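[Q] Does anyone have a clean structure-token version of this?
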Amino acid sequence: MLKIFNTAKNKKIDFIPINKDEVTMYVCGPTVYDYIHIGNARPIIVFDVLYRLLSSIYPSVKYVRNITDIDDKINSKALQNNETIFELTKRTENQFIKDYKDLNAIKPDIEPRATEHIDEMIEMIQQLIENKNAYEAKKHVLFRVKSWDKYGKFANKSYDEQEHGARVEVADYKQDPADFVLWKPSSDDEPSWDSPWGKGRPGWHIECSAMVKKHLGENFDIHGGGLDLIFPHHQNEIAQSCCANKSDKFANYWMHNGFLMSEGQKMSKSLGNFYTINELLNEFSGNAIRLVLLSTHYRKPLDFTKSKLIEAENLINKLSDFINKNKNEKQDKNIDEFKNALCDDLNTPLAISIMWKYQKEKQIGKLLKSIELLGFDIKNSDKSQIPQEIKELAEKRNQAKIEKNFAESDKIRNKIRQLGYEIKDTPNGYEINKI
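[A] Here you go.
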């Protein structure tokens, strides 16, 4: 049984999906105004392992991770770089995709962009106004915090404890200092869309609520992100989604990864400890970065250092050499002990220690399967090697196609993809490639 520490309950509980045939998961993605840094990489890798684990347990997993391509930081950076907003977001999004692929993270099933969901945002804002949870003021639309008596419960903040003005803009058009923006007017040099309230653009929080509803519905299984997003972002997501949908349900489970320090201090370019993934990949492998980030439990603080990367690179190289020398050993693939560790709130440090035990005992089959679930891309000397499980699924899919059972064929294709491989039909049969 998979157990998850649910932030909303502040305790570890059994995971019971809404639909046992398809688990639904949404993770807050990057704001594409600059290259991602090592702190951004932590949730990418953590939830990639969760995705792989869920895919090994359930028939299907629908994984959505958004791209925020409209934001004040983007506007400011584009102006600073003397480039268009489109040029900036396209360039940084392309680099983001390359970075997470180099970290061997599986591409989510859906990667929605905020700018592609403006209509859904406007529709949700209109519903909030109709429900008396939002109001228009000076071409802005704001969420009325006091209209929802559960506001602050998720983040464990009473109204009096909220820091008015620190994280929420204080303005004279607000009915209450804590009210937050759903829609705001744009100046001539800022991106804008037509709306019932004039030309403008959405606030940050409404973006995720609209994309979640479009792709996963009003109620879904897991919402993930960094600890820093609990307040105000995730608290505001819950408030506006529940109020717009007239429901007390949104995400059933909330998972948050802990903070990351760099070289013992907060990351800062002035301190010389600000590492982008693009820069790190010029010196180290994606496997080494992955090993460092997974060696600490995802909910605990992590101090990331280059010395840890050097040590991890050496371990990965030794692991690769070991596999190449021993790949013909007996292949026992029962990894219950390993999966039990991951099923205990994604205990990757314990899982990694079991992986090293498999290596020491020369249990190559178990070792290879554990490596696959943790997402390491260890190259064998036989680079064409495809796991037997993938080959068997491919054969089942091929048989389903022959029998014209296309629904089953598509289901198996999705399963293969969730395990990190793609199958391509050719005139001479099919090909299997690693994503």
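[Q] Thanks! Anything notable?
[A] Residues 380-384 have pLDDT under 50 and may be disordered.
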